[in-house]
Write a structure and sequence with these properties.
The chain contains four helices and no strands. The protein is an all-alpha fold and about 140 residues long.
């Protein structure tokens, strides 16, 4: 059997948290139309329950992301890697900020815009993370 290392644990926790944050948003977005048919307040109730998992997952993503940066030693990486990393960090912040605004607003248009922005930014962050790993991270 292969050895389990701190790198294994770090990557596992990061991928697990990304699965909850990104995958959960995609799943919830798919469920919302059906939930609306059940009851007008069902999407809000489901979103509140999801937030109990999503926000801790986002916190784990941030912490393991910092751990990833420390382990990769970004100072030795080439400029394109560093630029991609900073774009990813910006997109992660957009995803979290938009999710926060989405969860605190009562405006239907703002719910739609912030929900979409959260999901698109989460997917973008996931893509950029894969790009970083494939290019030396």
């Amino acid at each position: 059997m292969l050895s389990i290392t701190s790198d294994t644990l770090r990557v596992f926790l990061h991928v697990l948290a990304a699965t909850v944050w990104v995958g959960g948003q995609i799943t919830l977005a798919g469920l919302v139309p059906g939930l609306r048919e059940l009851a007008a307040d069902a999407p809000r109730a489901a979103a509140r329950r999801f937030n109990r998992l999503a926000w801790p997952a986002y916190g784990v993503l941030v912490l393991t992301g910092i751990w990833n940066i420390v382990e990769v030693d970004v100072g030795d990486a080439d400029t394109s890697y560093q630029v991609t990393l900073f774009v990813k960090l910006f997109v992660v912040a957009i995803s979290g900020g938009a999710a926060f605004l989405h969860s605190t607003t009562k405006s239907r248009p703002m719910l739609a815009v912030m929900g979409a922005l959260t999901g698109v930014a989460a997917l973008g962050s996931l893509f950029l993370g894969v790009l970083l790993v494939r290019n030396g991270g």
